[in-house]
Amino acid sequence: MLGRVIEARHLRVLRAVATTGSFSAAARELGCTQPAVSQQMKALEASAGTPLIVRAGRGMRLTQAGEALVRHAAGILAGLTAAEEEVAAIAGLRAGRVRLVSFPSGSSTLVPTALAALRAEHPGTQVSLEEAEPPRSVEMLRAGDCDVALAFRYGGAAGSAESQEWDDLVVRPLLSDRLVGLVPQGHRLASAESVGIGELAEEPWIAGCPRCRGQLVQVCAEAGFTPRIDFATDDYPAVVGLVGAGLGVAVLPRLAVEAVRGRGVREVRVEPAVRREVVALTLTDLEQVPAVAATLRQLERAAAARV
Amino acid sequence: MLGRVIEARHLRVLRAVATTGSFSAAARELGCTQPAVSQQMKALEASAGTPLIVRAGRGMRLTQAGEALVRHAAGILAGLTAAEEEVAAIAGLRAGRVRLVSFPSGSSTLVPTALAALRAEHPGTQVSLEEAEPPRSVEMLRAGDCDVALAFRYGGAAGSAESQEWDDLVVRPLLSDRLVGLVPQGHRLASAESVGIGELAEEPWIAGCPRCRGQLVQVCAEAGFTPRIDFATDDYPAVVGLVGAGLGVAVLPRLAVEAVRGRGVREVRVEPAVRREVVALTLTDLEQVPAVAATLRQLERAAAARV
DNA sequence: TCAGCCCATAAGTGAGGCTTGTACCGGAAA
DNA sequence: TTTCCGGTACAAGCCTCACTTATGGGCTGA
Questions:
Q1: A171 touches strand D (CB under 7 A)
Q2: Would the Cβ of B124 be found within 7 angstroms of any atom in strand D?
Q3: Looking at the DSSP assignment, which residues form a beta bridge with residue A191?
Q4: What confidence score (pLDDT) does residue B155 get?
Q5: How far in angstroms lies nucleotide D4's C1' from the CA of residue B34?
């Protein structure tokens, strides 16, 4: 048997034949030759098991089976073009949804810039934003709960463990975020241009998120002391507020400080320079999704514009 | 470019992948090998212009485009199977309509037998019956107003013209219908076994339909006389009634006489034997239509059973 | 009767779908 | 950890099938 099942191609040919009333005209409409139409119709009749058209001198008529098939073809082909259009809209960035997860200081700095540019370039795209710190955000990425994760990692030994976890992901480096020191206005180091970390050994500390705190402890250990951490909170405005209130000093990523208009605090450069690398993460397959690719591109542009 | 447009085959594969959650399981469900599924999915993603699935360790997830396509695929494939089933019903004689046109004496003899058998064999088929004499019924057949025409033709010189008109049609001979003479009871020839047509030369005649009348005149001319036709009507019961009332004699096809229970008339065999050939006509293409073929078959069986 | 249009058929070609075979990667069990 | 198993990707070969060109026949209208 030739044609086992009915394919969309057959229905397109049949519809063209039914509307034009001739094989040749259908061929012209379909952009192929007349024998092609002839063969398709023969194959379709073979799989139908009954003639679909009757030649009636000039022109042709549909049989009952032909009429039934044409009637169904209308809906089927309409559904098919609707499906193609919806997919094309997603592929062409006239539609498409991206679920973005970012760590807090990223979502208030890089993300707004990137999303504004994305919206301007592709108004049809929709982006949902959620906040989560790196370990959790990567979990969400793997679980399929988001498409892009804005995360960060610290260089050196501590980062290697994370890098290993990410080697099956797409890692797009965005920028290198230097840590800056925060001291209260009026502090003895408030007007210093650069401060060695060891000079803060005896100060009370306000620590940030757990990972940042770990990083802080490690850096201080390398400098030969253990920081006395009086307060620790995920809330960066709170950190800045605590420093401003004179309750201690802090070391925060540049991005986090920038996101908070701190009053009563001074930024000082801390030596040795410690940087965290801010990256965008996504799954290998998702990198090819147009909306995801566009989001990554805009995140990179937003990061580049920050230099 | 590989896959230009989306075909039903692609959607079947995608649906199987989406429901089973793996290429291998989809291949088993579809009755093909796993690389076949792999290739189809790759082709589909190529024509979609965006990934449709993301591999997520154990199993896989659909992307937004994939979800859209699967959502549409449900309706499209449902419509396709509905179309296939409807066509299969027609092809398998579980459905199907035949428009039958018959001359009057055929519709009351052969047709009921044939249609009863058809109904018994294929209860799903629907037959519509209309009455029309041969010239008109063939017109209807050519115009697409009916599918099968029950007609008749006279042999000899008169029939050749009709045969020429029918040589592009499918002609199924059903039976040869001998013409019989009708005389009133008590007529001088009422008890004759066989009557030469010439013996009726002086009788008043009741003629039937126009074509039968033409045939009558021709036969009489060959016998050397011109019949005096007092009445002519398409209505065979009327002809029989008129003969029964003693208003004349008539020559009618056997089928027509059989259809009418005549009172007060006697049948006599007329010599020379004149026969009309009863045939079923259809279009070449329609002969392959199952419902038409079944109708023709039952008409032939009904005619054969009449011997 | 001739010209034009349309359809069917045949043969050749090319694309692409399917298969087998193999390698790679992951997770689960020993 | 090693080993095994289920799953996928990749490559090569085959074969089906869809399209092409070329040709013949049939019907219509001039």
A1: no
A2: no
A3: none
A4: 67
A5: 21
- Boundaries of every domain in chain B: 8-91, 97-299
Q: What is the pLDDT along chain A (307 residues), one digit of tens a residue?
A: 445 789 999 999 999 999 998 999 999 988 899 999 999 999 999 899 899 998 876 678 899 999 999 999 999 999 999 999 999 989 888 998 999 999 888 888 889 999 999 999 999 899 999 988 877 888 888 878 899 999 888 765 444 555 556 777 888 899 988 888 888 888 888 888 888 888 888 888 998 877 778 888 888 888 888 888 888 888 888 888 888 888 889 888 888 877 777 677 888 888 788 888 889 999 888 888 899 999 999 999 988 988 6
Question: Would you identify the CATH topology of the domain B8-91?
Answer: Arc Repressor Mutant, subunit A (1.10.10)
Contact residues on chain B for A88, CB-CB shorter than 8 A? 49
What DSSP letter does each residue of B174-218 carry, written as one string?
Answer: EEEEEEEEEEETT-TTTT-SEEEGGGGTTSEEEE-SHHHHHHHHH
What is the C-alpha to C-alpha distance for residues B196 and B249, in angstroms, rounded to an integer?
Answer: 13
Listed as ranges, the nucleotides of chain C within 7 A of a protein C-beta are: 5-11, 16-21, 26-28
B97-299 has which fold? D-Maltodextrin-Binding Protein; domain 2 (3.40.190)
The closest CB to that of A88, out of B49, B84, B97, belongs to B49
- pTM for the model stands at 0.80
Which tokens in the block code for residue A230? 């009086």
CA-to-CA distance for A51 and A72, rounded, in angstroms? 17
Q: Does A160 touch chain B (CB under 8 A)?
A: no
Q: What are the backbone dihedrals phi and psi of residue A129, each rounded to the nearest 5 degrees, phi first?
A: -120, 135
